[in-house]
Amino acid sequence: MNDISKNRIQLAKKNFEKFKNENVVAAIVSGSIGKGYGDDNSDIDTFIFYDKPYTKKEYDKIVGEAKQSGGDIFHGSPKEGFAVYYYIDGIKCDFGFRDYREAEKLISGMLKMPEVDLMKHLQISGFIDSVILHGDKWIHKWRKKARKIPEDLLYFMVRNNLKFEPEWVMNTMAIERGDTLYLHEYYILAIDRIIWILCGLNKIYHPGKLKGIDNKIKQLDIKPVNFFERYREVFELSAEESVKELFGLIRETMDLIDKHMPRQSTARIRRVLEMKLRK
Predict the structure, then answer these.
(1) What would the mean pLDDT of 63-91 be, rounded to a whole number?
(2) Mean pLDDT lowest for which of 108-117, 129-138, 224-233, 262-271?
(3) Three-state SS for 278?
(4) What is the pTM of this model?
(5) Is 114 left (phi over 0), alpha (psi -120 to 50) or beta?
(6) Which residues pair with 92 in a beta bridge?
(7) What is the rounded CA–CA span in Å between residue 120 and residue 114?
(8) C-alpha distance from residue 52 to each of 28, 135, 137, 204 (Å)
(9) Average pLDDT, whole number, for the chain?
(10) Is the separation of the CB atoms in 107 and 146 below 8 Å?
(11) Where are the alpha helices (DSSP H) in the chain?
């Protein structure tokens, strides 16, 4: 954990005292600060789990103080849970308030009926990669349960992202036509799908967003050779070289599926990748 993250964790602990009461069972700091690689522009993302909702009076006080600091409410209500943001010591501090039973329901639901839902993966990975402010026993219980990722979920993460265009599509419909936006849109889409697949092969949840993904990529054991450097080159090389590099990464990812998840055939998508434009 870097120094900025350490310092902001201390601020998060101080902030938490503002909301702590007998109904709060757990609290964590997630996001880049909780993961330990925050920088001077990083928000502090704090999630507070309660057994009994905040009263209307407490809610109004929290929202009022948030607005007074220059922040505001994101969404929600005392009954359903809510989220606000403050500006404290010049730092944006986001706070989410939620019934702890909803957290347990989220994890149990994913284990019983695995699904590739970006928001749910974001929330569950947030439990796993976070700093505990309060309620160690609750967070450790959720983490232990969440880490028992079903094989079917890992399979879905791979299978549902085996969707790539033939290489000729990028060379003709994007490069030859000079369609720069389409080309770069596909770069992001294809790399995101590769990351989903790699998360499945590495038996972890998707972090939920591409922002800050570099830190997670560096932690992956199963990935194409020099994946971090090469995916970045896709956005830096000439269009022709970028497409060649991207499809090289896609094919190497197929090789990794064959090796680490043989139950998922890559034969069909390999045929798609090699399709030629009809003349």
Answers:
(1) 95
(2) 108-117
(3) coil
(4) 0.89
(5) beta
(6) 87
(7) 10
(8) 18, 15, 18, 32
(9) 93
(10) yes
(11) 3-16, 31-35, 56-68, 100-112, 118-128, 136-146, 151-159, 167-169, 180-201, 213-219, 227-233, 239-260, 267-273
Q: Are strands 44-50 and 91-99 parallel, antiparallel or unpaired?
A: parallel
Helix H, strand E, coil C: the string for 189-211 is HHHHHHHHHHHHHCCCCCCCCCC
193 token code pair: 């799908």
Say what the alpha-carbon torsion angle 151, 154, 155, 160 is, to the nearest 10 degrees. 150
Q: Which amino acid would we find at residue 236?
A: E
CA atoms within 13 A on the CB side of 204: 19
Provide the token pair at 68.
């007074």
Find the distance separating the first CA and the last CA of the chain, reported in whole Å.
56
The residue behind tokens 């956005």 is 235
CA 90 to chain centre: 26
> Do residues 15 and 27 touch, judged by C-beta distance below 8 A?
no
pLDDT band at 72 (very low <50, low <70, confident <90, very high): very high
φ/ψ of residue 37, rounded to 5? -120, 25
